[in-house]
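Q&A log
Question type: sequence-to-structure
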Amino acid sequence: MWTEEAGATAEAQESGIRNKSSSSSQIPVVGVVTEDDEAQDVFKPMDLNRVIKLLEETDKDGLEEKQLKFVKKLVQCYQNGLPLRDLAQIFKILNLCSGKIKNQPRFIESAYDIIKLCGLPFLKKKVSDEITYAEDTANSIALLGDLMKIPSSELRIQICYQQASSSYKIQMAEVGGLAKTMVQSMTLLENQLVEKLWVLKVLQHLSTSEVNCTIMMKAQAASGICTHLNDPDPSGQLLFRSSEILWNLLEKSSKEEVIQQLSNLECLLALKEVFKNLFMRGFSHYDRQLRNDILVITTIIAQNPEAPMIECGFTKDLILFATFNEVKSQNLLVKGLKLSNSYEDFELKKLLFNVIVILCKDLPTVQLLIDGKVILALFTYVKKPEKQKIIDWSAAQHEELQLHAIATLSSVAPLLIEEYMSCQGNARVLAFLEWCESEDPFFSHGNSFHGTGGRGNKFAQMRYSLRLLRAVVYLEDETVNKDLCEKGTIQQMIGIFKNIISKPNEKEEAIVLEIQSDILLILSGLCENHIQRKEIFGTEGVDIVLHVMKTDPRKLQSGLGYNVLLFSTLDSIWCCILGCYPSEDYFLEKEGIFLLLDLLALNQKKFCNLILGIMVEFCDNPKTAAHVNAWQGKKDQTAASLLIKLWRKEEKELGVKRDKNGKIIDFENLPGLSAEDFVTLCIIHRYLDFKIQATHKQRELANKSWEDFLARTSNAKTLKKAKSLQEKAIEASRYHKRPQNAIFHQTHIKGLNTTVPSGGVVTVESTPARLVGGPLVDTDIALKKLPIRGGALQRVKAVKIVDAPKKSIPT
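Response status: OK
Response body:
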């Protein structure tokens, strides 16, 4: 964010203070003194201990003159730079001089001259001196921060001036904690602008280091600097240097902690006033650039839901600034204002769209977005390009703003759905999609983040419009979805999909796959639980689903988005085909079950659950079994073999153990169970055994009595044997490890009288109700959701199928 203009201003102010040429900043960090250098008297010896002893003396006649004379001699001796080996003693002398200033003001000049020497490179005689004297150097530099307490403007400026150089000094400043003392010194300079600017310059240089930024952040530098952004400053340096420091703190220290420091009313009011002033009265390139920087900092703070953006009025102003060009306003803040097509104003417009997305995450902002007519403002961009525009943006700029506006609508519209509908949002989006699909000549620049993959085509516009439509559909607002269906959205989506697959585009394959995925998700959202809409989806819809399912499986590993497209496709089978008999039959006729089993055979866990759920639902259709039995995979694998293989894999992943005979040996080997827990577990185990047996019996004899069935069956002997086996199983389940106080009831099953434990009334006094929640619940509801007759699935028209959950689709 440093600009030549700002730099020139800063350097001009510095020139009145400097006594040395600026070329000193080009000198290396540490100068190396050789034997030849010593021969040239670069390293002049001096008894520093004698100077220290002299400065420590008091109450002698003529002592001050003598002390000043020796300090002056010291400065002359080290005019080529301070040796690292002597640094500790020299700074002790400096500290003694500074301690005398209050009663002997003449020592200001001595301290000033010594500090001035710090602007020169530190000298070393040996290569190892930097390491050997590192601690002395760090402590010495840290002392400079303490000297800021001396109430001398000249001395403070000289201290700050010395810090504008070398990386070695910044490294030593990190060790010595200079950044902390410099931040603390800001409180001493409330009304002293020149000194404050110099301190800010020091902090600006120090904040290039992550270590220093962390030190500054802990010293509350962010809030301390931010609250003074509006202090009077004709030079403009205060705002520039402060914003630069805030940037560095956000980038190089804990972003969360810095945001927390800035998330208070005082800081946000300061930022608000700065931004308003720059927005309304900033006309130079530098002002506009600084304005945008302040807005970015504000956007980062706005991500914190605890920041009082609404309370300080900043949210309302930002919404106004974001929409005043599109929605006419009589507010005095924007009256007569106009954005140009300059780069800075163009960036500002995009930043304002972006901050709206951030602000809308805070629900109390919704009413302000309504009042500001944000939806209407954003929809001014959702139309084909026109020659007449509110602002004379270039074609590339307008396209980028258009895409940015549609992306913003995807976040805002679901929160303001009534506003969206009042603006005829569905009609606008569908009309825009129609233009996206048309042959209307349009040269897309595709040169922005949102325009990725859209150069020379309308894919970017279609991509973001479909995202918007998907966000609206998945609100599951029936008024919105009904309106979409009445406007022919299902047919339009299928048409767009068919048009896309008829014109393969390998260059923009990833964008095309995303578009296809979103179309299928939109169709799923519209058709789910609506038979009439599934009928509209019809065979044309089934065809596009089958087209995707025939994709080469190797492409699933390409990383382009085929996985997401497959998820969307499976979702559309669930929502758009299942439950609509003609579509189901057409899907079967076109070998859709074969394609599902082919996908299942890929053995990709992320797809298995969803595919199996779909298969279960399809088995309600009596025509499905033949297709399942007819399928053959690699090496003549059958569907039954495939399912068994999947079961074994699942067992392995769950860690299920079996004995040598294949019996599961750890169902009940569960850790951490008490005696009461084991009793309850036994009840559950036997209860489930009974339910399995009883349910099988009930389903088998649901329509005919057992006696009638036997009389009409040629294989009566076999069935009698089956009946006997079932009775034994029930009895075994009833008596095996039976709790002594379990209550049993006489139960009549059609055609069969036997004594079985009743699921509705089984209680065990030894098992406290707090452990089982009272009597065990009846499982009939669960059975109704998945009706079984001899292993084949049957339709149940009266009960909505809800037990197989839809797979979450990645976005």
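Response note: The first strand starts at residue 30 and ends at 32.
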